[in-house]
Amino acid sequence: MTGLDSGAEPVAQEPQTGRQAHAGRRNFMRKVFFAGGATAVATMGGAGAWAALAADGGATASADPSGTPTGTPSGAPTGGPGAGGPGNQSITEDFFGLTTDGKKIDDLFTVHSEGVATAPVIAAANAFLAGLSATQKSSTQFTVHSTEWRLWSNVDAYDRQGVSIADLSDEQQALGKALLKSALSADGLETTERIRRINQAAGEAIDNTDSFNEEAFYYTVLGTPSATEPWGFQFDGHHLVINYFVLGGQVVMSPCFWGSEPTEIEIDGTTVSVCKEEVKASLAFINSLTEAQRTVAIESTTKSNESMKAGAFADNTVQEYTGLRGNALTGAQKLKLLGIVEAFTGRAKADVAKARLAEVRAHLDDTYVTWTGGIADDSAFYVRVHSPVVWVEVDCQAPGPLAGAYGASQGSGATQMHVHSVIRTPNGNDYGKELLRQHYLTSPHHR
Length: 447
What we know:
The chain contains 13 helices and 15 strands. By secondary structure, the protein is an alpha+beta fold. The strands form two sheets. Strands 1, 2, 3, 4, 5, 6, 7, 10, 11, 12, 13, 14 and 15 form a 13-stranded mixed sheet that branches. A hairpin with an 8-residue loop joins strand 3 and strand 4 (231-237). Helix 5 packs antiparallel against helix 7 (170-183), helix 9 (276-286) runs antiparallel to helix 11 (331-345) and helix 11 packs antiparallel against helix 12.
């Protein structure tokens, strides 16, 4: 296979270690078109599609469609506006971002200093890269324009780029964790650790740690860590995806996917739980509404097995505003609404979270909330918080491949024991794309 992004000379591959066999061939066709194999490539442009992807960089191409993951990415149903996945849209499309009608709203995001302290994450990223071997670095570092930003998935058996935890020595693992620690709050770091630990414990419970473990999580670095030029990193694995873009004193931490199955399990005699904050905050909000308000917010009291619209491969989702508008809320209810968003923004460092929440507050009256399902403490539900600058989904899903770890039957009714959630930035600023565009338009040395 041939690397198409870094421009580095080919380097002999090092022997596989740990659970690298789980990742298998880092097969680009499977990454983008795993649902349709070779037929999908032909349908979506064949060699032309590969050429377009190669031009954008950050991929390894192969024509071997063998092997499929255990499920499609969340947010990849068939048909309908906003449905993601290879059958609906792919990275061969230009990035446009989430919109309500296919038209971006301009002037929402500008390049300016938000006072975010990015020096620690720059230092941690440089230390992480310096600790990699030449081979590891060549497969881990991509250009800031790379399609790798968009090649994320919550699926367990999805082939990923970069270097996995299993690929790293103890010293390298410590450098990787230091990178996450420099970007995330204590809660954010703990959430990532718990998702990984539960994935391992659930894999052990069903005797399938080849697919479900705590090591098949991958680091990639996009661009060169810098105090002035745009760059970022991605941490990607089952039920856990973090995209972190940096430009000067600004950070865009989206899309981020946080999920787990189960959301609670006993590990070494202690109950470990995760994804409870977003569930609790969502239920607190819906139960703060009057009956009349709930009539507007709740689309259906029946929850389907999966409701997420903007998961993996859904970067260009078109979704009109629906539900209850923020200007119809009392001050106390608006705080409850912000609580849902804070469950996600609070996983970043405090200064990043503060800047993000200020952005969200500025558009609170134009924020819409849509609900499906029950409102009891143990109800399965789906909630979407949608404004010009933020998109949050919390989706209680049906038991999936790890159902046996908690005594459930795969495909039965939706449950709080299997939660998927995502936070995005609509109108073109996921992955910091809008800031990146403005930077190259306005910076004298790029003109």
